[in-house]
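User: Show me a protein chain along with its predicted structure.
Assistant: Here is one chain, sequence first, then structure tokens.
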Amino acid sequence: MAEGSEKHFVETEKMPLLLEMTRKLYLSLNIDDVVKQVLILAMQLVDADGGSVMLVDRKSKKLSIGKASRLDERYVEETVLRMGERVAGWVADQKIPVLLHGKLRDNPQFSALEGRDDVRSSLCVPVKISDTVVGVLNLNRMMDGDMPEFTQADLRVAVTFARYCAAAMQNARLCETLMNRNQQFTEQSRSLTVWLAEICHEITTPITAIKNYVKNILDGDLGEVPEKVRQRLERVSQQVDKTVGFLEELRSASARELDFQEINVALLISEALRSVEVWTEEKKLEVEVDVPGDLPTIRADNEKIEQVLVNLLRNAIKFSGESDKITVGAKAGENEIQFSVVDCGHGVSAEAVEMIFEQFYRAEESQDVPGQGLGLAISKKIVELHGGRIWAESEVGRGSRFYFTLPVRARGAQGTQKAEPGD
């Protein structure tokens, strides 16, 4: 067959089949499945009786057999070739496809090599992306088969198919790398979670003892306390409270287990308000509650959702002035409940709103307000673990409005559930 006719043959007769086979290759992102499909489809495409797909190790630059047909299993497991070694190594090194007929030693460039006596004809094609070889495709027609020797047209088809294979194999390898790294991250995250919870517990215990001891002194258990000493001890007590609060936030940040139960929304908000009552009274804040009486119940982790509300309320309290107003509300949406906490504080810029749920982020307008920048980040994580959303709206000088939603029936809401990183 003339060269022009061979090229026309590939473009007209084989191209639809090539495209359909390429589509099949991209259906999987598992490298083993892709390599298996490469061999099966390549054998179908050129009517081969057997063959193999060899993969190039990116570090050692050596070739090993990924998948094979009509090759001894032990040979498949043990064969490792250097670049330039034997036919496949030469093809990988030179990046040139070869068409071989008869015995290997009958082909001038490989005359020194011993080959298989049962192979009638072979195609050996580099699988490459740009100029980088990622594998070698070997295809054989056997002496006991019905097909004649491979032709230049078959070689062209194999070379064209190898181009498509390279991209599919590279995608699968990248996916495998990403999955391995994600697994490593998940395992590290779990270890860090356990370690963080243990550290918080170990530190909280002696600090709580200090707080109780200071309280006993202030209560006069050890005798009368001079005014100057009392003032200093009260400051110590305040710092201890802040430290304990910070440790509790850290421990909450490490907790990834949800205990779902049926929750009355009005009661939930009432409990959250009771938790911050001492601070609202201290600032003489007006607290308005806007909760309809006919709201459906939700299934969620009561303790953690209450913590979200407390975090948002404490945030509103910190940024509110004396006698300001805070509004806490909830309303029904389509298959969800939307909660809101609105304050009349000095607000933050639009740029800050975009970053406000990041861990340890402190807006420029809040640098003089106590806090570690963890409360909102923890709230975001808790809400998202429930399958909800959380966001904020704010303008400098016009206060802030925080919203979050929870499904009427939370994702996976069947008793206790462990949430994995990245859920």
